[in-house]
């Protein structure tokens, strides 16, 4: 039983119907609701998914992820796992089954994607976490998760600018970032 179950939040999430166009996540006990993403965001997610061979990898968008020992149920933009390891039907996918999680930064998710989700995915043992940032026009690949709880983090970090090839060794794939769009008139931030 996860910490989420101990607080009754799993039942809440199973029964709660957010308004149309709203995405809801539980991040370390905090309920976060977000509006539908920008077209730039959606096009990047699709471009990445299309470059990961479906014959070798299962690619799932907006699937609820159960993070072991965390009061969290995140909904990554894209997650990748080996074919056949996921159950046929289930609302929550255990983080232990996931090879790669992808989050595309939105105009309002910068701190969550670079901060709390980085720690949550590392605590859940997700081997690779890819942050794609249309604000700063770069990708940040985090690997080698260590630690537990809020102290968890990734030991390795590689930054790739949009336009350069993005090697994803965990999938044996190289992603072309040339056509990744950026947000216009958005203030830069301080992350990598």
TrEMBL record:
Among InterPro entries, the record links this protein to: Nuclease_put_TT1808, Restrct_endonuc-II-like, Uma2
Cited CDD domains: DUF820-like
* Gene3D superfamilies per the UniProt record, alphabetical: tt1808, chain A
In this chain the Putative restriction endonuclease domain maps to: 13-171
Q: What is the protein's given name? A: Uma2 family endonuclease
**Which keywords, in A-to-Z order, does the entry hold?**
Endonuclease, Hydrolase, Nuclease
Which superkingdom does the taxonomy of this entry point to?
A: Bacteria
The transmembrane residues are none
Q: Does the keyword Hydrolase apply?
A: yes
Q: Which GO terms describe its molecular function?
A: endonuclease activity
